[in-house]
Amino acid sequence: VAKQPKLLEALENLVEPYSSGDPMKPLRWTCKSTYNLSDELQRQGFTISPTVVRGLLKELGYSLQSNRKRFEGKQSPDRNAQFEYIANATEEFQKRGCPVISVDAKKKELLGNYANAGQEWQKENDPIEVEAYDFIDKELGKVTPYGTYDVTHNSGWVNVGTDSDTAQFAVRSIQRWWEELGEQMYPESREILIMADGGGSNGSRNRLWKKSLQEWANKEDLKIMVCHFPPGTSKWNKIEHRMFWHITRNWRGKPLTSHEVIINLIGSTTTKKGLKIGVGLDSQKYAKGIKVTDSEMDSLSIEYANFHGEWNYIISPQC
Q1: Which residues have CB under 8 Å from 265's CB, separation 6+?
Q2: Does residue 280 contact residue 180 with C-beta atoms inside 8 Å?
Q3: Separation CA 145–CA 108 (nearest Å)
Q4: What sign results for the dihedral spanned by CA atoms 159, 161, 164, 169?
Q5: Are residue 132 and residue 44 in the same domain, yes or no?
Q6: CB 123: neighbour CB atoms within 10 A?
Q7: How far apart are the first and last CA of the chain?
Q8: For helices 7-15 and 34-43, what crossing angle results, to 10°?
Q9: pTM here?
Q10: Which residue of 119, 247, 258, 289 is 20 to 30 Å from 88, comparing CA positions?
């Protein structure tokens, strides 16, 4: 890389094809193999192999998936077509000056003086001492950081929840982004595009997710379009490598001893490209197991797309 200083930038342009003033189709290269990527880089004049591409992708944060959050099933034959659908929707929203956000919940984190993955510079022979075993501290418990990443402005908000990761918590987290950042950035917009994984608290089959979005749409008079990533592709959700990866890198080797520490570490996360992250603590209780009936679903104002309506739908505000 030292001998080819523009190599990393060229690779990132292939897998992250947004450029200033020219928002190309996102996810254009997400289905390309390391062999295809190395071939393209070689055509651009670089000397590189598929093995080196794989290592550089890890360096850029594309393969450092520390936890598989859920089994996502077999790949859909329409996965590439769904990427194109999301790409086209993104372009349309950006052209109209409407927000495009990528959302997800980061893995739960134990609070306390526990070992955290990674290393940090310390004086020689003076490492930070932590507990030998990761038994949960009943007073501190765990936290769930739920992130909202603004694709256009390279900024985001992390809602640090102290209770359950439910659909209501997910939507409340997005609401907080809107209240703290989004509404100021997009004062004229009454439409929003949300890109989300297909499972979990913001899953495509989660009825409470849709009902909670409807309540938010009604409250703020917002038209909400949701596009879910197809099964087996959550690692391409932009929030994973544009925001979460940098947060993890910022707190590597540091014990997450309190709410204040985790909030400070998230809020101080920056990148050379100017990433800015707002953060707040959410101590609200979120009940598990809330059921949404068929009649409640029928009352929602949802328009399902002709192409994979289970992945793509619009929730409109109700008068």
Answers
A1: 247, 250, 251, 254, 256
A2: yes
A3: 7
A4: negative
A5: no
A6: 6
A7: 57
A8: 130
A9: 0.74
A10: 247
- Going by C-beta distance under 8 Å and a sequence separation of 6 or more, which residues neighbour residue 209? 167, 170, 171, 201, 202, 203
The answer to the question of residue 166 being in a domain is yes
CB 193 within 8 A of CB 96: no
Q: What is the CB neighbour count within 10 angstroms for residue 314?
A: 16
Token pair for 214? 């409807």
In angstroms, rounded to a whole number, what is the distance separating the alpha carbons of residues 34 and 37?
5
Q: 32 with 178, same domain?
A: no
* Residue 214, number of CB atoms within 10 A of its CB: 22
Strands 223-228 and 191-196: parallel
Query: Residues 140, 255, 243, 188: what is their CA dihedral angle, to the nearest 10 degrees?
Result: 40
Tell me if 68 is assigned to some domain. Answer: no
Residues 86 and 154 both lie in one domain:
yes
Which tokens belong to 138? Answer: 């009943």
Residue ranges making up the domain that contains 40 = 1-63
Are residues 228 and 312 in contact, defined by beta-carbon separation less than 8 angstroms?
Answer: yes
Q: Which amino acid is at 15?
A: V
Q: Mind listing the pLDDT tens digit of every residue in the chain (319 residues)?
A: 567 888 888 887 777 643 333 333 444 444 456 777 888 899 999 999 988 888 887 766 664 333 334 434 456 788 889 999 999 999 999 999 999 999 999 988 887 654 444 444 334 444 434 443 444 445 667 899 999 999 999 999 999 999 999 999 999 999 999 999 999 999 999 999 999 999 999 999 999 999 999 999 999 999 999 999 988 776 667 888 889 989 988 878 677 888 898 999 999 998 888 999 999 999 999 999 999 999 999 999 999 999 999 999 999 999 7
Facing residues of 223 across strands? 191
